[in-house]
Amino acid sequence: IVETKNHHVILFGINVKVGISQKQIVECCQSLENDLKNRFTGFEINIKVSPMHHY
């Protein structure tokens, strides 16, 4: 969470499972964004999606 005089932003990333469709990723992000906006009113929500990392 970034909260300054001029900015109120929640930044985070999510990893997605290999093989998940683009449609499922978009639906997941939209659902998360809506839930976060309801919970953290006044904050900008910025979700970044990355492919699953393999060790």
Describe this structure in words.
With 55 residues, this protein is an alpha+beta fold. The protein has one domain. The protein has 1 helix and 3 strands; from the N terminus they run E-E-H-E. It has one helix at 22-39; strands at residues 2-3, 8-16, 44-51. A 3-stranded mixed sheet has the order 1-2-3, covered by helices on one side. The model has no long low-confidence stretch (mean pLDDT 80). This is Cation efflux protein cytoplasmic domain-containing protein.
Bin the helical content: 25-40%
Morphology: elongated
Instruction: Give the distance, in angstroms, between the N- and C-terminal Cα atoms.
Output: 28 Å
Order of helices and strands: EEHE
Biggest sheet layout: 3 strands, mixed
Number of domains: 1
Round the mean pLDDT to the nearest integer and report it: 80
Task: Output the structural class.
Answer: alpha+beta
- Low-confidence parts lasting 5 or more residues at pLDDT below 50? none
The proportion of residues in beta strands is 25-35%
- CA radius of gyration is 13 Å
How many individual β-strands? 3
- Write out the strand line-up for the largest beta sheet, numbering strands in chain order: 1-2-3
The count of helical stretches stands at 1
